[in-house]
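The protein record passed on below.

***
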Amino acid sequence: AYAKSSFKPEIAAIRLASNTVVGEYDEFLECPICNDIVWEGIQCGGCERIFCGGCINDWLPHKKSCPNCRKEPFVSAPPAFGTRRMLNNVKFNCGVCHQHYGYNQTNAHF
């Protein structure tokens, strides 16, 4: 078994570790591997569950199935329009400068 924290992409951890989500967001936007907001999401073509790109890429060399529906082989798909829209509505409070910024502004903020 793998510790969930071992799947967290390092870049996302650095960018989001000291930041908090402002308001509420749909649980669907949490990666079931690391239990954090999805970063660089990849969606399962079968069950449409979304995962962090780094998490699923770390998972697949060990298990060829979807962590959610267990369908094998895992067929990746880009996140659906609705999912991308929900992600882009998530706002963060920066733990360094204390400004609010949107999910789609994360790269520019750092």
Summary: The chain is about 25% helix and 15% strand. Residues 21 and 92 are 4 Å apart (CA to CA). The helical segments are 10-16, 53-59, 81-88, 106-109. Residues 1-14 have pLDDT under 50 and may be disordered.
